[in-house]
Amino acid sequence: MAESDLYFLQVPVGQMANLAYLIGSRTTREVVLVDPAWSVDALLDQVEADGMKPVGALVTHYHQDHVGGEIFGMQIEGLARLLARQPMPIHVNDHEAQGLIQITGASESDLARSGAGDSIELGAVRIRLLHTPGHTPGSQCFLVEEEGQPHRLVSGDTLFLGSCGRVDLPGADPEAMYTSLTQVLGQLPDDTILYPGHLYSADSSGPMGDQKRTNPFLRATSLEQFLMFMGG
After folding, report:
1. What is d(CA 154, CA 186) in angstroms, rounded to the nearest whole number?
2. For FRET with 13, which of 21, 68, 145, 196 sits at 20 to 30 Å CA-CA?
3. What global pTM score does this model have?
């Protein structure tokens, strides 16, 4: 197997079991930050210590524990701190760009609006932006691809190891979640490695093949069965 160009770090952050990610190319030294809501300075310091250059941030969805803002009486620094320290494009799905602006105070000029099928290339690494609505209208997952290497799926709050994201919050859509899980994520190769947005399980990552066999929300064979699993 050829030597990988991928720079990839999973970083536990914050007080809600969040997982942030640093994804980049060792050749070009470019890196993007996924969901930098907590410990923003520490994430940027890590990038700098590794000799990398941050060129953007990727947002899985616009909830405050993933982008910053006030939640449960806490003020999370998030994208406001990131942009204050080093301006860079914030890649957010078009369906919730306006919500992101309202929550974080970012401006339209800070955003790089994305849609299904968009991708980002860093050296030999391609990051495909998969629109996976359900948890929120503009939820997106990031499929990290490199020739000759297993794919990695950074799934935000759409899919966890053994479970999936909530669909009882404002803007959530159980039917859309079912479609995202079964028709998008469930179609990925079994050797794709899942990296969720929260550490809600004993393991912090695992093969999609295992999830297809054991995760009831991926195993649901009908919308009715899925809704039953969700308590609806």
Report:
1. 14
2. 145
3. 0.96
